[in-house]
Design brief:
CATH topology: Cytochrome p450
Radius of gyration: 22 Å
Shape: globular
Number of strands: 12
Strand content: 5-15%
Largest sheet: 5 strands, mixed
CATH architecture: Orthogonal Bundle
Helix content: 40-55%
CATH superfamily: Cytochrome P450
Structural class: alpha+beta
Order of helices and strands: EEHEHHEHHHHHHHHHHEEEEHHEEEE
Number of helices: 15
Distance between the termini: 51 Å
Bound molecules: protoporphyrin IX containing FE
CATH class: Mainly Alpha
Strand order of the largest sheet: 1-2-8-5-3
């Protein structure tokens, strides 16, 4: 059911039963583990959705979630198409030289490129530009986000607080976040009153005028009325925090999903053939966009099966807000609860041959065989990934673009089975090296 264990000195509940995990995730009265509030020290990420709790979070979630509606994804689609075209061009350059490709780097550049364009309307072209300021600062923020400061905060909040009081920049975020604060100010000033750009920054700036409610989410009740939550726009600090947070959580997760998908296809050639057949039959050489990718069931299964075997976020956390009853046990307030996404995804109790890559599990006709609460790559419930639709669209469009021209094949440097690094985000420890083989013309009509 669950076990009590420790995160260093802190007792936590580790959930073993997916039904209980699901129950905890979908109930709103579990919070996310709180950052200690004893010390008020400004941090650039203070207003980010991932960090907020209670009514502040509800306000932010209601304001932000329409940014990821299907209507907005349709608008963002052409911007993404340009990033996909650039990915293909760079893949082509490497392949023409006969070089194997390290895909974590290649897809990492693609997601950076896509985030810069979708997030800020910036034409980055990340490939071969390792010294570009945008890239250096994004990477610095990400590595510090999952680095020493974050771990100290989770494991030893008192020491973390003490260092903060002493004004030690333990998160080492300042330089990177200062860069983005400046960049956002520059972009916003340049735009002046022209509010028609299609990117996340502009959608955040316009959020309070957006009357749309995300088509997948229930409006979360906020204080006295729903209207109240939409009345004010986001402050500069709120826009900054959330833009930076989108980059942190959006970059690594989508890049590793694509990298593992390439690995799974290279090592499962029959699945790759079937996917290529679907692409040829459904869109041929047309540009993938939000609407035509919806017609591809097998592609959806491929991405889901990749996320099952390699969920970029291998666990998620909640915390009891008050004394709670969980499965008949009384649990004190402020108890962290760990939901082991990776372990649920690979449990032989719920999956037949869990280590085998088998996209058919997710076909519509087989969906009734899935056990609720055992497939959680984007979490579940009110705090589930707000950008799931964008993540799927990015991964699918990029994958189609490559497979319209090439096949992934293993080479001497391909590590099989791939060694995993599970420390914060799940990723391939040593990257994933594959070759691309040019496809003949369209095989399947
Ligand atoms: C394949 C890609 C991605 C995966 C697997 C993923 C997974 C997750 C997971 C597991 C959570 C926590 C859910 C929970 O605890 O119930 C989460 C939250 C979140 N994700 Fe994603 N994510 C992905 C891409 C993205 C992208 C591209 C963005 C933004 C551009 C994003 C923004 C967020 C935000 C803001 C939250 C916090 C939501 C809240 O606290 O209300 N994610 N994501």
């Amino acid at each position: 059911m669950f076990i009590r264990t420790y995160l260093l000195h802190r007792p936590i509940l580790l959930i073993l039963d997916p039904e209980i995990g699901r129950d905890i995730l979908i109930k709103n009265f579990f919070s996310i583990p709180n950052r200690p509030q004893t010390i008020k020290r400004h941090n650039d990420l203070d207003h980010a959705l991932t960090r907020l709790t209670g009514d502040k979070w509800r306000f932010m979630r209601n304001t932000i979630s329409p940014i990821f509606s299907s209507g907005k994804m349709r608008k963002i689609s052409p911007v993404l198409a340009e990033s996909c075209a650039r990915l293909l061009k760079n893949v082509e350059i490497e392949t023409n030289h006969g070089r194997p490709i390290e895909f974590k780097q290649m897809f990492g550049n693609f997601t950076l490129d896509a985030i810069a364009a979708i997030g800020f309307g910036i034409d980055l072209n990340a490939y071969g530009e390792e010294n570009n300021e945008f890239i250096l600062n994004t990477k610095a923020i990400i590595s510090n986000f999952v680095g020493f400061g974050a771990k100290l905060n989770a494991f030893m909040p008192p020491l973390y607080n003490l260092l903060h009081t002493l004004r030690v920049d333990i998160d080492r975020q300042s330089k990177g976040t200062m860069f983005f604060r400046g960049l956002m100010e520059e972009v916003t000033n340049l735009r002046g009153d022209h509010r028609d750009s299609v990117d996340i920054l502009q959608l955040l700036l316009n959020a309070h005028r957006d009357t749309e409610v995300s088509d997948t989410e229930q409006f979360l009740e906020y204080e006295d009325s729903k209207e109240h939550c939409k009345k004010r726009g986001l402050s500069k600090a709120e826009v900054n925090s959330n833009s930076i947070m989108f980059m942190i959580v959006g970059y690594e997760t989508t890049a590793t999903t694509l990298t593992f998908a390439a690995y799974c296809l290279a090592t499962n050639p029959k699945c790759q053939e079937e996917l290529i057949m679907e692409i040829d039959k459904t869109i041929g050489q047309a540009t993938p966009d939000y609407d035509n990718i919806q017609k591809m069931e097998y592609l959806d299964c491929i991405i889901k099966e990749t996320l099952r075997l390699y969920p970029p976020v291998p666990r998620t956390m909640r915390e009891t807000q008050q004394v709670m009853d969980i499965a008949g046990y009384t649990i004190p307030p402020n108890t962290p609860i760990s939901i082991p996404i990776y372990a649920f995804h690979r449990s032989p109790k719920y999956w037949e041959e869990p280590e085998v890559f088998n996209p058919d599990r997710f076909l519509e006709k087989n969906k009734s065989k899935l056990t609720p609460g055992t497939f959680l790559p984007f979490g579940l419930g009110p705090r589930s990934c707000v950008a799931m639709r964008l993540a799927y669209m990015e991964a699918k469009c990029a994958m189609i673009r490559v497979l319209q021209k090439y096949k992934f094949i293993p080479c001497e440097q391909t590590e099989i089975p791939v060694e995993l690094d599970c420390r914060f985000f799940l990723k391939p420890k040593n990257g994933i090296v594959l070759k691309l083989e040019k496809r003949e013309t369209q095989t399947y009509q």
